[in-house]
Design a protein that fits this description.
mainly alpha
Length: 117
């Protein structure tokens, strides 16, 4: 993990170190793979039990995944849904302009929100 990274209290640092040791030990005997136990939510979501990529510190997650893209799901979910809707509209041979079907969504350009003086 990166030098100088802030990990909070001594207890939190110890927890991250313990998780890192478990990840290293398990993956070293599994050909660099870290298996995770699936835990399905009654609401349709998928979580993982125990130590998982979902619930470790960001720095440990980076160490586990290597060179990967990091996404802010709260920010990107609307764009993803609109892209998915557009693809479905195209497959149905319907107008692919999602603004037609999602009138409640506000699509404003930056220039219309911030008047240039």
């Amino acid at each position: 993990m990166g030098a100088g990274a802030a990990f909070g209290s001594k207890g939190k640092r110890q927890q991250i170190l313990n998780q890192a040791k478990v990840v290293l030990a398990v993956s070293s005997i599994n050909g660099a793979m870290f298996p995770q136990r699936i835990k399905l939510s009654p609401f349709g979501r998928t979580y993982y039990e125990g130590i998982s990529v979902q619930n470790v510190h960001k720095e440990l997650r980076r160490a586990m995944l290597g060179s990967c893209w990091e996404y802010d799901m709260r920010s990107s979910v609307v764009a993803w849904k609109m892209g998915y809707a557009r693809d479905l509209l195209l497959q149905a041979d319907i107008c692919a302009d999602v603004r037609v079907y999602f009138e409640s969504m506000r699509f404003e350009s930056l220039s219309s929100r911030h008047q240039i003086q």
